[in-house]
Amino acid sequence: MTFGEDFKRRIKEIKTPRWLRFGLVSLIFLAWVVWMRTWWLAIFELLLFDIYITGYIPFTWWKKSKSKATRAVMSWVDAIVYALVLVYFVFSFVGQNYQIPSSSLEKTLLTGDYLWVNKMVYGPRVPMTPVHFPLVHNQLFGVNSYLDHPSVSYRRLKGLRNVEEGDIVVFNFPAGDTVASKFEETPMYYDLLVDQYGRDEVMTNKAMFGDIIYRPVDRRQNFVKRAVGLPGQRLAIKGDTLYIDGEARPFPENVQFNYIFATNRPLTDDDLKALDITAGDLYTYAPGTPSRQNLAPFLPKAAPGATAYMAPLTRGMIESMTADGLLADYVKFNQVAPYFFDSGMNSMVFPFGSAGDWTLSDYGGKLGIYIPKKGSTVILNKDAWTIYNRCIRNYEGHNDAYFDEATGKVIIDGQPADTYTFAMDYYFMMGDNRDNSQDSRFWGFVPEDHIVGTPMIVLASFDRDRGLFDGKIRFNRIFRSANPDKK
Fold first, then answer.
1. What are residue 358's phi and psi, to 5 degrees?
2. Residue 14 CB contacts under 8 Å (≥ 6 apart), including other chains
3. 307-342 pLDDT, tens per residue?
4. Are 458 and 477 in contact, with CB atoms under 8 Å apart?
5. Is 349 helix (H, G, I), strand (E, B) or coil?
6. Neighbours of 55 (CB within 10 A)
7. Edge-to-edge strands of the sheet including 95-99?
8. Contact 336/299 with Cβ under 8 angstroms?
């Protein structure tokens, strides 16, 4: 039998339902090719035709095996492979689940929330490390869950819209390109470790820090914050109020700040549950202690013997305690901190650190900090280099760029540069738990190629501080909007 005769025979043997399945799969595949705008992928339509229709490649050889064990095992392998391929495409191009690991967005999102993150809103990012295991982020059984090669340059497919001011956004941690393996899951990222211990110590002391690893963009840790500044805008914070291009922005509904407050009676466990204050967020200043006595001038309405506390509070929590007659007096922690507390957090703010006078509450200077926009140009001087050098070096690939102290010039790729034109859009991200959020105020801008997606709904929520029969499952949060401030 000739090839042509065999081909016709195979075509005739295919029943209508299989033709329908092939047609549906083909339409989905070709729509994906059009979306990708990578036309050479259409060649794989021939593979689909063979899988569903002609069957020249013996993918299902095991179905004809005489061994019952072989058929049983391979049927499971076949199902698992199909499931993994489906999960790969869904997670890469549609969306995926994500767990909130920290309190930086409380009370908008809570630690223990499991979110569905939609990647189609901003357009899914084509996988930059395409060969990876789809169910884990960067490690599986202690080894990388991805291959460094082949790799793909950044490209984003067409989405429904761009990132908007006020969006809650999931993104890869920009400062997570270089990591100390034993600190990767902690707030102590590589640059902080180097500042604290010195580069040589971090690089050589493997017992303490582990291996020093480079992570590709899409394999860096996932963070979730609110986009408060967009490309081309100027951002400033004055007295905790956010200003964009000189205009004040309202606070998110559930924004929190650290407060020191006194109560008319000691707080009970029931009080803490009602207010949703976790034990780890509460610090107590017992009556009669030196620290409580030092706070007396800042809490004049409270009796000298009243217990004082420090905790992150929303406006609603303050109003609730006031209505219940529980709150005696309160003051923002930032108003008290300069007098009694170490201001080490403020000394680490981006970009000047201890050399500048920006703080978490007063940030950006008189004019505000400019957020780079694709195609915009900045004049390069020492201050501009301090602000934008990570964008130029780490995010846009000019590794051989530095500030020459001798000439006062920025050198990029071996040439003096008076200006720089940005190749990407950047964003400024902040948490709603303003005084307890490691965000752009510490490590700078988020490049567009780090954007993953936006959370849509809370799939499930578990309170780590409560037992199974004591409210561990937050039923009232299931299927709630993950971005309630966006109307």
1. -75, 145
2. 52, 53
3. 999 999 999 999 999 999 999 999 999 888 877 665
4. yes
5. coil
6. 14
7. 95-99, 113-118, 451-461, 168-172, 222-229, 426-430, 446-447
8. no
